[in-house]
Write a structure and sequence with these properties.
Layout: H1 15-28, E1 33-38, H2 45-53, H3 67-71, H4 73-76, E2 82-89, E3 104-105, H5 114-133, E4 139-142, H6 150-156, E5 161-162, E6 168-169, E7 177-184, H7 204-208, E8 214-216, E9 219-220, H8 226-232, E10 248-250, H9 254-257, H10 283-286, H11 291-298, H12 307-322, H13 328-337, H14 341-354, H15 357-369, H16 373-388
Parallel strand pairs: 3-10
Antiparallel strand pairs: 1-2, 2-7, 4-7, 5-6, 8-9
Length: 389
């Protein structure tokens, strides 16, 4: 149920008092940052439209849907008057891999899936707001669950600036932050927008990106981004980008790791974000996972988003980049028996990169039985690569 502007009764407490108490309560609930912005057209909307026109969203078709709601949040939640933006620190230091064949997972996915964690805190904040004002207050929580330009809202609520790596950066907290929004149907006292961009002449993130996804300051071509390639892309990873991905199997932190502002990053206080067993996945274990085993192992993790096919595909690329001969047997098993042609294709590529005689023999044998034309093409290319090296 929504409440229109006309029907929303004004509270006896002033908007300033309510806002101060709401922000204090948000911090008590475990949020690291809380800011308030009025509902209105995002200032960065023209940049968002330009980004879409360039095709930089790739296969993320959801980014191009509901443009009207991205431009006017009140269309998304009728009656909305204010937006409470919450920031939650997820920083965890990455420990050195204990084995030689270990994949990398972005910090945000080391612990439990953040959607429920942050949503729970924002819903508790809505309950608190109702206890202050009354049950007539309506609200709706969004954590990557609606067409909202959340970084724009974070800037407008005073939480930081958008850096050259396109992440929101807070001057004291850095950029390892989850963002969530609570739209409410009463007017609150807004915080002053964050005015100054502190990136200056620094270009470390642009230089460090191995795939060149940061095509310019503040401009990301998602189609080249390792996070996009390992999570959002469902099909084949472009061959020219595979050698540049290293051992990342889910997401990437490189542009944040080199950011000087993250030298101030502090360990998250949220216990749900403590690293779980999937934080340092053994690549040979991943490529042997069945669908059932994948679901059991990664339940409650953001890695579920990649699906079994995507995660195994990513592990194949990582193994191909490591070129370890011990990976040949499990890769051959995938090439010969996996039902997913995407997996078979990337297993073939990895075998070509390893290039030992057993790998070449397996590729030659697979060519005799493989029916999928895309996989056959990959086998031929991989055989060529292996015999030339």
């Amino acid at each position: 149920m929504t409440v229109s502007k006309e029907k929303a009764s004004l509270p006896r407490l002033s908007p300033l008092t309510i806002s101060q108490q709401v922000k204090r309560r948000g911090l008590e609930l475990g949020l690291d940052l809380v800011g308030i912005a009025p509902v209105g057209r995002p200032e960065s909307f023209p940049q968002y439209e330009d980004w879409l026109q360039r095709g930089y969203h790739g296969e993320m078709t959801y980014m191009s849907r509901h443009r009207d709601k991205r431009e006017d949040p009140e269309l998304l939640f009728p009656g909305a008057r204010s937006v409470i933006v919450g920031g939650l620190n997820y920083y965890q230091p990455l420990s050195e891999p204990q084995g030689s064949l270990v994949g990398k997972v972005a910090r945000y996915a080391l612990g439990r899936d953040y959607h429920k964690v942050l949503s729970r805190k924002l819903k508790a904040l809505l309950d608190y707001l109702r206890s202050l004002v009354g049950p007539q207050v309506d609200g709706r929580v969004f954590v990557d669950s609606g067409p909202i330009l959340e970084r724009d809202l974070a800037v407008r609520s005073g939480l930081g600036w958008i850096g050259k790596n396109t992440c929101l950066i807070h001057p004291k907290k850095g950029s390892y932050l989850f963002l969530g929004e609570l739209l409410v149907t009463i007017p609150l006292e807004p915080d002053p927008p964050f005015q100054r961009n502190h990136c200056g002449k620094c270009r470390q993130c642009l230089v460090a990106c191995p795939t060149g996804a940061l095509v310019g300051p503040y401009l990301l071509d998602s189609r080249k981004c390792i996070s996009y390639l390992t999570i959002e892309l469902r099909g084949s990873i472009p061959r020219d980008l595979r050698p540049l991905m290293g051992t990342w199997v889910f997401g990437c932190d490189i542009c944040q790791e080199v950011c000087p502002w993250n030298k101030k990053a502090t360990l998250t206080a949220e216990p749900d974000f403590s690293p779980r067993p999937w934080a340092a996945p053994e690549l040979l274990e991943i490529v042997r996972l069945s669908e059932k085993e994948f679901r059991e192992r990664f339940a409650g993790s953001a890695l579920m988003r990649a699906k079994r096919s995507g995660l195994v595909r990513n592990a194949c690329v990582a193994l191909g980049n490591l070129r370890d001969e011990s990976a040949v047997a499990p890769l051959v098993a995938l090439l010969m028996d996996d039902p997913d042609p995407i997996v078979r294709e990337h297993a073939a590529w990895a075998l070509g990169r390893i290039g030992t005689q057993p790998a070449i023999t397996a590729l030659t044998q697979a060519l005799q039985t493989e029916k999928d034309e895309t996989v056959r093409t990959e086998i031929l290319l991989s055989l060529k690569d292996a015999t030339q090296e």
